[in-house]
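Before anything else, study the sequence and fold tokens given here and see whether the fold suits the sequence. Record follows:
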Amino acid sequence: MNLELAKHIENEINNKLHRKLVFKWQTIGGGSINSTYKISAESFNYFVKINNISVFENGFKEEALGLKFLKTHGAITPKIISEGIFKGNIYLVLSWIDSIFETNKFWQNFAIQLANLHQNKSEKFGLNYSNFMGQLVQKNTFFNDFPAFFIENRLKPQVKLAFSKDLLQIKELKQFESLYTQLDSFIPKEKPCAVHGDLWSGNFIAAPNNKAVFIDPAVYYGHREIDLAMSLLFGGFSEEFYKIYKEIYPLEKDFNFRKDIYNLYPLLIHLNLFGKSYLRSVKTIVSQF
């Protein structure tokens, strides 16, 4: 841990609290990209995320904007305490959220919360700034229809990157081109809505009040099935979650058929970040269509 950076972060917190606390730093698990800590002093607890500016040139600005986007649309998020850049290091300080085991009541509440988030509509698919999925840039150029948005902003950039890394070959490129021509017939027509964008089990916290706290967003106005498909990619949530969501906000038929198309995007992200262990999943899905 960079002691000068730690002192800078503590000073920022103390200035906001009008105190002179000395914090204890504890390393915690927080993914494969950033260094993460819990820092504590007296009754004050915070979550701190740190990285090098070479990873995210704007610091954690886009993540902070994403949390504000979610909060503006009614979602529960940690409070942003501080975000900035210090001597080549970037940091984000959030309020600490205690977690509990996910109860049936939690999953019911989470389904309601997500359905409510998806009720926030927009006129176009996209967002007025780019952000990140993992550590890869996520373009959010506006489009009037979701298939075009998904092809141009999601699939094509990742396919191009994977091809440049020799992870995909000409055969797969041709299969993707064929898939692009079919997407409009597969995906239901819905108005753009606010989405989390990276909704898997590591990106929410089950809080003591049995409500979900949304973290690590990759937000934009998209198709709501994106969030539901992503939630199923790495094992899925409780059956109660999907049952309640569908009761509140029913899905069009054949979602289970479509979910693999949506999940091509996060799988391509993982392919480009972590290598060939994700190649079979990508090839299987794209060859199906």
The two ends are 48 Å apart (CA to CA).
